[in-house]
Write a structure and sequence with these properties.
118 residues; mainly beta; five-stranded antiparallel β-sheet; 1 helix; globular
């Protein structure tokens, strides 16, 4: 995200075309950039913009690298600016790595419905 717009990139090596859909508007064709990548810069895309990628078969998918999914894991992604967050407790330093317990769970394969609501 820059002053001139937002660069969207999506890896989809099995398709020849991919469209970008902003705020549920008209699909905009992305440009192939090699090795299965597609990209498109959108000047009007700013924090709060909802977006998704449309595949040739009509399937619309969220950004797998999204930082925010306001309408569940199957809905559109939302652009956010992580630098805009104002930390409230600058003295907090977290925990040492050896104190952490990290557990990853893929909701789509763990629940029959494939949603957080399940």
């Amino acid at each position: 995200m820059t002053e001139s717009g937002t660069l969207f990139r999506f890896w989809c090596p099995r398709h020849e075309t991919v469209d970008l859909v902003l705020d549920e508007g008209e699909p905009q064709r992305m440009t192939p950039s090699g090795d299965g990548w597609f990209e498109r810069t959108e000047p009007q895309a700013r924090p709060g913009t909802l977006y998704a990628f449309r595949l040739p078969d009509g399937l619309t998918v969220p950004d797998p690298a999204s930082r925010h999914q306001p309408k569940d894991v199957h809905g559109p992604s939302e652009l956010i600016n992580p630098e805009a967050y104002r930390w409230q407790n600058e003295g907090w330093r977290g925990h040492a790595a050896e104190e952490l317990v990290i557990y990853e769970l893929h909701v789509a394969t763990f629940t029959q419905e494939g949603t957080f609501r399940a």
